[in-house]
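Figure 3 (text version): structure tokens given as input.
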């Protein structure tokens, strides 16, 4: 949720478009890997969206290039729709949020080992969590500041937190007797404007996160979390970090790492991905081997 600014007086019009736009990059997905056009059964969903006065944004992105830099680009709507499992369901329109520019590094430029590294190829789908900095929050706005998946090898990520704080949630289906990871894992990433922005009703956001964690644990999944972002000086973000830490403590959710506010030494993306073995890995470095 939220525009990543350190003052509640800032508005979305003041945000640097070079840091947040994900719609004007060159797609690197090869033509042979593109999905087919939507089936007839999904046409009604698409036609209804085309009548809207504003463009529809979706969380699904792919590897792209902007000049000499690698980044992510939002999938075209028809490509996104054709890849959906339930094509007749409503599409979550995220045009009320703003997507961050996610940093992608070249594998050749990075050290061989990084504990939270994810290698991205040009055929992969990445789900990006955007910001909600304009709409007062209710129980129906969580799609504007979070996204998740239960699909293996689909990275869910956000970036450019500055004063904002991101929290990534990893939920694994662990066999109690053996500790083995079983199918059924899921992940979700939230991008939160500092709770000092009371006009956006941050209590609704905290309740949304609590509900998600409680519902996930009721499903029998083991949850852990990671956090990143927030101002390193001043108190703009501290209350948000404290509220999230307290919530995780109350629910007995393990915090794998906390890189927020006074504990923050770097500026990285934050994400999570389900691996082939059904385990979940947090991600703070994304690399792509690009020729």
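Below: residues designed for each position.
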């Amino acid at each position: 949720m939220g525009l990543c600014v350190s003052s509640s007086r800032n508005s979305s019009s003041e945000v640097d478009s070079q840091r947040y736009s994900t719609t004007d990059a060159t797609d690197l997905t090869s033509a042979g890997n593109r999905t087919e056009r939507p089936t007839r059964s999904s046409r009604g969903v698409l036609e209804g969206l085309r009548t809207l006065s504003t463009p529809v944004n979706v969380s699904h992105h792919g590897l792209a290039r902007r000049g000499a830099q690698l980044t992510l680009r939002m999938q075209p709507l028809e490509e996104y729709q054709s890849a959906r499992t339930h094509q007749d369901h409503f599409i979550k329109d995220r045009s009320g949020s703003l997507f961050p520019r996610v940093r992608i590094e070249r594998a050749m430029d990075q050290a061989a080992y990084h504990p939270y590294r994810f290698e991205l190829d040009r055929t992969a789908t990445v789900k990006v969590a955007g910001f909600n900095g304009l709409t007062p929050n209710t129980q129906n706005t969580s799609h504007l500041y979070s996204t998740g998946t239960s699909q293996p090898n689909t990275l869910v990520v956000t970036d450019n937190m500055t004063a904002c704080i991101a929290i990534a949630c990893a939920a694994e289906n662990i066999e109690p007797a053996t500790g083995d990871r079983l199918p059924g894992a899921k992940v979700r990433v939230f991008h939160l404007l500092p709770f000092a922005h009371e006009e956006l009703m941050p209590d609704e956001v905290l309740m949304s996160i609590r509900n998600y964690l409680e519902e996930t644990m009721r499903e029998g999944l083991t949850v852990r979390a990671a956090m990143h972002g927030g101002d390193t000086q001043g108190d703009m973000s501290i209350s948000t970090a404290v509220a999230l830490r307290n919530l995780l403590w109350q629910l007995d959710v393990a915090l794998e790492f906390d890189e927020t506010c006074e504990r923050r030494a770097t500026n990285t993306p934050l994400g999570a991905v389900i691996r082939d073995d059904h385990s979940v890995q947090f991600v703070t470095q994304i690399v792509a081997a690009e020729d």
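The longest strand covers residues 181-192.
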